[in-house]
């Protein structure tokens, strides 16, 4: 009892004498000491020589200089903000150790990526003004004395952005990546094609963008009572822009996962190349309604070759391990009615149309695997049997995830119940139009990615967690920011912070301070003091 009282007393004392570093996501271990270290005009940064480490130092120098107005530079000799290589294996590929003493800050990691996360923590230990894009004067640039050891819980921590339904400009995509990196997330899943728009330039098939990236009308309102203004809507990324974004993300240790939808969600592609569909003589139009279209790819040999040719160009543009091929919501009506599809089912000894879906996915899996990459698909790639190398992105609940993990497949968790930013986050009457449902930030935060029914071995297949921004109703960047933030901050903590360290009240307290950082970064989050119009 005495011991317990003493512990409480110490904690209370620590609270009043030590400034709480309000770090999001919450680090694994934080030990605070009394006092602080203050940055000065002559503060310098040093890093190991390696180019990637050096780049982390440059990024820190430019952010510190921008906000403080001091000329914080990088030097060769050991400095008061010192990045150093650690050989502590327990830190893994992404962990870091940060210690702030009266002499300055040391960030140790095994990799430059770990150092980058240490840098993000350091920035959050400074006053929120450090995130300002312009000089803020009159601020004491102090860091509380502390030792932090921090290792993420999951290796996959991501956000998805759907640019098929609404195109988002390059500058916004970069901002989205910045926000991913700020929260120590490492995956940007880019949903590039859908019924309502094809957004990536493919040199071999120019009509995908000349035709497939434009729809005839803009739609406003819920799909049940939509209004059309008759104005064309469109947009796509050139391959040069894609390269620029991939490089921008890599500089921030974010991997970009491109998604090319197949065999469903294919209408924009069919509008460009009708020979890929059920009826080559039909005139298909890029979708102007939300929802699922029955027009899908017909898996003739020429269609499969088209898909492989598209993926070949995609693979050249995106150096990361994963290629996402969609696979979700493929209505089977056209395949049921098609003589070709029925004959193929017989010839290949497939059970039914679900078997045909699996046939397409397996063929594509083989192609992607032969190119040295890994295929990801939504839950529905489980239909008719999972192809050997597939990673499942589980959105329909957690049952698909459990099935896949039990079959030794890797899984990324992104269930609608917790991870869908197109659901309402507050009373619908007070909110801009959303798809329906209700997922508030507490719900998102409460998500436990590893289903209890899995054994420890099976649980290792749960790679991590992702939040999804489907943009049927999010027509502008400001709208996306409003729907995504602050829920994405909770997703980041779910992915990074250990189960034991998670606590919603504590998160919510840190979030209130974090919001000031988001204000400086100009993020139009729900609850922001000034909400822009969308
Ligand atoms: C289902 S989640 C979809 C999307 C929609 C979303 C709306 C998934 C793999 N497919 O095409 O935008 O619902 O919530």
Automatic annotation (TrEMBL):
Its EC number is 3.2.1.52. GO terms for biological process: carbohydrate metabolic process; glycosaminoglycan metabolic process. It catalyses: Hydrolysis of terminal non-reducing N-acetyl-D-hexosamine residues in N-acetyl-beta-D-hexosaminides. It holds the Pfam family Glyco_hydro_20. InterPro entries: Beta_hexosaminidase_sua/sub (IPR025705), GH (IPR017853), Glyco_hydro_20_cat (IPR015883), Hex-like_dom2 (IPR029018), HEX_bac_N (IPR015882). Residues 154-498 form the Glycoside hydrolase family 20 catalytic domain. It comes from the Bacteria. It is an enzyme of class 3 (hydrolase). Residues 20-150 form the Beta-hexosaminidase bacterial type N-terminal domain. Residues 1-19 form the signal peptide. GO terms for molecular function: beta-N-acetylhexosaminidase activity. The active site is at residue 329. The keyword rRNA-binding does not apply. Keywords: Glycosidase, Hydrolase, Signal. GO terms for cellular component: membrane. Belongs to the glycosyl hydrolase 20 family. This is beta-N-acetylhexosaminidase. It comes from Dyadobacter psychrotolerans. The lineage of its organism: Bacteria, Pseudomonadati, Bacteroidota, Cytophagia, Cytophagales.
């Amino acid at each position: 009892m005495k011991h317990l009282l003493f512990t409480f007393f110490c904690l209370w004392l620590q609270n009043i004498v030590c400034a709480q570093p309000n770090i999001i996501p919450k680090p694994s271990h934080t030990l605070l000491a009394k006092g602080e270290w203050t940055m000065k005009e002559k503060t310098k940064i040093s890093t190991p020589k390696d180019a990637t480490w050096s780049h982390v130092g440059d990024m820190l120098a430019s952010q510190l200089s921008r906000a403080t107005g001091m000329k914080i530079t990088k030097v060769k000799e050991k400095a008061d903000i010192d990045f150093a290589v650690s050989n502590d294996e327990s830190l893994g590929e992404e962990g870091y150790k940060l210690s702030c003493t009266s002499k300055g800050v040391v960030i140790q990691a095994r990799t430059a990526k770990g150092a980058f996360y240490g840098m993000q923590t350091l920035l959050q230990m400074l006053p929120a003004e450090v995130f300002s894009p312009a000089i803020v004067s009159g601020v004491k640039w102090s860091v509380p004395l502390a030792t932090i050891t921090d290792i993420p819980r999951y290796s996959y921590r991501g956000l998805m952005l759907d640019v098929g339904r609404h195109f988002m400009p390059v500058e916004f995509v970069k901002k989205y990546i910045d926000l991913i990196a700020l929260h120590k997330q490492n995956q940007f899943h880019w949903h590039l094609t859908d019924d309502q728009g094809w957004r990536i330039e493919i040199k071999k098939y120019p009509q995908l963008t000349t035709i497939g990236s434009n729809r005839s009308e803009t739609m406003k309102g819920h799909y049940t009572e939509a209004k059309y203004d008759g104005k064309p809507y469109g947009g796509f990324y050139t391959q040069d822009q894609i390269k620029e974004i991939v490089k921008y993300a890599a500089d921030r240790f974010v991997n970009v996962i491109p998604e090319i939808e197949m065999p469903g969600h294919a209408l924009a592609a069919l509008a460009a190349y009708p020979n890929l569909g059920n009826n080559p003589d039909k005139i298909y139009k890029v979708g102007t309604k939300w929802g699922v279209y029955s027009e899908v790819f017909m898996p003739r040999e020429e269609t499969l070759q088209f898909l492989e040719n598209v993926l070949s160009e995609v693979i050249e543009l995106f150096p990361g391990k994963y290629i996402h091929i969609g696979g979700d919501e493929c209505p089977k009506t056209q395949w049921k009615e098609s003589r070709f599809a029925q004959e193929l089912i017989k010839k290949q000894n497939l059970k039914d149309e679900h078997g045909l879906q699996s046939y397409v996915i397996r063929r594509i899996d083989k192609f992607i695997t032969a190119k040295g990459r890994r295929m990801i698909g939504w839950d529905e790639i489980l239909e008719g049997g999972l192809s050997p190398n597939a990673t499942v992105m589980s959105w329909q609940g957690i049952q698909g995830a459990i099935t896949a993990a039990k079959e030794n497949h890797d899984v990324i968790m992104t269930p609608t119940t917790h991870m869908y930013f197109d659901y309402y986050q507050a009373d619908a009457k007070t909110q801009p139009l959303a798809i329906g449902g209700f997922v508030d930030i507490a719900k998102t935060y409460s998500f436990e990615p590893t289903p209890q029914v899995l054994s420890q071995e099976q649980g290792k297949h749960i790679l991590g967690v992702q939040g999804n921004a489907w943009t049927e109703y999010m027509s502008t960047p400001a709208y996306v920011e409003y729907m995504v933030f602050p829920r994405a901050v909770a997703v980041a903590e779910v992915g990074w912070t250990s189960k034991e360290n998670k606590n919603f009240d504590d998160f919510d307290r840190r979030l209130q301070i974090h919001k000031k950082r988001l204000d400086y970064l100009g993020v139009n989050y729900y609850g922001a003091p000034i909400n822009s119009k969308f």
